[in-house]
Amino acid sequence: MKFYLLLALSAIALGHCGERVLAQGIVGNSGTQVQGNGQNFEITGGVRAGQNLFQSFEKFGLKSGEVANFQTPADVANLLTRVTGGSASVINGRLQITGSNANVYLLNPAGSYSAPMPA
Description:
The chain has 119 residues and is mainly beta. 8% of the residues lie in helices and 53% in strands. It is built from 1 helix and 12 strands. It has one helix at residues 9-17, and strands at 3-7, 25-29, 32-37, 40-45, 47-49, 52-61, 67-71, 78-83, 89-91, 94-98, 103-108, 112-114. The strands form 3 sheets. Strands 1, 2, 5, 6, 8 and 11 form a 6-stranded mixed sheet that branches. It has a 4-stranded mixed sheet with strand order 3-4-7-10, with no helix packed on it. A hairpin with a 2-residue loop joins strand 3 and strand 4. 30% of the residues are buried.
């Protein structure tokens, strides 16, 4: 399984200005279900097209210690997620997937920031 963060040109501006917008939390839309339990977010639903699963979020961000767990059917090869709310995604927590070995693509036209992984 591989995780990909796809950024738009605004992500370059985000890094250039030296300020980070802290868009924390996860809010699903378009059939994507998000169940929060403390620091864990269980994510299900979305729209299927063959071996691809599409999910949509109003906002997507994780604080340190938070976990976003994408639950997918076993036959999903690619999980494509989009963030539509206009805020950058700040990911300081952990992304994981259960149920399949799908590649995960997170697309946010407003950009994103991910903290370096500890060695």
